[in-house]
Design a protein that fits this description.
About 70% of the residues lie in helices and about 0% in strands. By secondary structure, it is an all-alpha fold. The chain has one domain: Growth Hormone, Chain: A (Up-down Bundle), CATH 1.20.1250. The radius of gyration is 23 Å and the shape is globular.
């Protein structure tokens, strides 16, 4: 693929002869797997090493992040609603205040992740929100939960966009969705197992004078702190400096290989000096807001399911408390299968839009079944379709965005914007299933249907636009994203 270097470092290499610097300026026309220093088999081994270290660590930490963020519903039916007198909108207020700080602090947090480095930055905020989580086990009045949830939002704000950004810097465009899927799949494992774990922790009720809901927060907070400390030693840095900060991971030559492959794919491996003007200028690209709106639609549904599924199973479908906790797991296990299967197809055939639409249609089929059928078992089947359709689209949307932008700081801006709109979706998801709408929760069902329909409309519009722009680029009428040979993925 022919490329045109637009990086500010292209004419100013530091440390001549250094493998990393040479890789940052490499713009050969070799095929991505053709490299003078490594055989294809050696390259595959290096990619697998990156997978094991980067995706596994980020995935496990995201697992605990998602568990800490969504364990309110488990605590609610484990006694928190009664002890803290969560009447009316109080439960919804506690869930949504988290997202106010979570959205506000994401853009600066993503910049800090790049400037400080993902290893110290991500590990530190994991430990800090773990400490807050422990504190959430001790309130005696419901209002105390509000500032604790807001502080939790501040510390979690940098984690998900930081991971999305970090992963995107390590892989070529059509290697991304499978990796994002595994990363997010581990998070689904958290959602699947959190109910079972919560049910086990509920059995500690009375220990130390605290009810079971308190122990859910305390024990999970302690686990978070432990994993945060471990994460400091296992997280990796960005490719241009990973050989210096992650001992035993990749050497300088191997990091240089990764950078060469990124440059051959999209030519944005090197980092430009930070400029607030250039970083913010990415906001003028309308398609970025289209990606963000898609993510908003997805997270509105995924958070609504995460926060309210145990409650819906209990109040709307008539299952016991224990069954409601444990029946959360199977739909998320099914979602994991759908997620990885669609990711494999999307990367293999270099498509994103058809997968997004297909999963949204699955949700549109499942929502009426979940909301309107008279039989509880059939409604539970609808939960499978809704959970799978929305969650499987999360990594697809992340890859959709990552495939269609270039530039390190634009990538940082986009990650923050995408996940920021995801946080706004979290606010919406906290409110769509209102207690006064029980047991049918029909307004929430209608809102989720509208989100899936809007997603389909945006993807169709993007597809028409991307096809038009690719045709113009093929005719030599314009250069896309500042790189000759770049094509949009639709």
């Amino acid at each position: 693929m022919a490329t045109q270097n637009t990086n500010l470092y292209s004419d100013e290499k530091i440390g001549q002869g250094n493998h990393i610097d040479e890789a940052l300026s490499d713009h050969s026309k070799d095929a991505p797997d053709s490299d003078p220093e490594f055989t294809p088999e050696e390259q595959r081994k290096i990619r697998h090493r990156v997978d094991r270290r980067l995706i596994s660590t980020c995935g496990i930490l995201y697992c605990i992040s998602l568990m800490d963020r969504t364990n309110l519903s488990a605590a609610a039916i484990a006694g928190m609603t009664v002890e803290l007198e969560l009447k009316g909108f109080r439960y919804s207020i506690i869930t949504l205040v988290f997202f106010t700080t979570y959205v506000i602090f994401q853009p600066p947090a993503t910049v800090l992740c790049r400037k400080i480095g993902p290893r110290p930055f991500l590990a530190t905020i994991v430990v800090l929100w773990g400490a807050v989580m422990i504190g959430m086990g001790f309130p005696k009045v419901w209002t105390t939960m509000i500032p604790l949830r807001m502080i939790l939002g501040i510390f979690e704000a940098g984690f998900f966009p930081g991971c999305v950004y970090l992963i995107s810097t390590w892989y070529r465009r059509y290697d991304l969705q499978k990796r994002y899927s595994v990363f997010y799949l581990i998070g689904c494992l958290a959602s699947a197992c959190s109910g079972i774990l919560a049910f086990g922790l509920m059995q500690m009720s009375g220990v130390g004078g605290y009810l079971g809901w308190s122990w859910i927060f305390i024990i999970e907070g302690i686990l978070t702190c432990i994993l945060g400390v471990i994460g400091y030693f296992t997280l990796v840095d960005f490719p241009d400096r990973a050989h210096k900060t992650a001992l035993g991971f990749l050497n300088e030559r191997e990091c240089a290989l990764v950078i060469r492959q990124i440059n051959k794919d999209r030519d944005d491996a090197a980092v430009e000096p930070f400029s607030l003007k250039k970083w913010a200028a990415a906001g003028l690209d309308l398609k970025i807001w289209g990606f963000a709106l898609i993510f908003f639609c997805l997270t509105t549904v995924t958070y609504a399911i995460a926060y309210f599924l145990p409650i819906i199973l209990r109040e709307s479908m008539g299952y016991s408390v224990g069954a409601s906790q444990c029946l959360v797991a199977p739909p998320y296990a099914f979602a994991a299968i759908v997620m990885f299967g669609t990711a494999w197809l999307a990367d293999k055939y270099h498509v994103r839009g058809p997968v997004l639409i297909g999963n949204a249609v699955m949700g549109l089929i499942g929502l009426p079944i979940m909301g309107f059928h008279s039989n509880a078992g059939v409604r539970y089947f609808g939960v499978f379709l809704v959970t799978a359709g929305s969650n499987a689209n999360i990594p697809c949307c992340m890859a959709y965005q990552a495939n269609n932008i270039r530039g390190q700081w634009k990538r940082a801006f986009c990650s923050a914007t995408l996940v920021g709109f995801g946080g706004i979706g979290g606010i919406a998801g906290s409110l769509v299933f209102r207690s006064q709408d029980a047991p049918g929760y029909r307004p929430g069902i209608y809102a989720a249907i509208a989100c899936n329909a809007l997603l389909i409309v945006i993807v169709v519009i993007n597809t028409i636009y991307f096809r038009s722009q690719n045709s113009k680029a093929a005719r030599g009428e314009k250069v896309l994203e500042g790189q000759v040979g770049f094509r949009y993925t639709y």
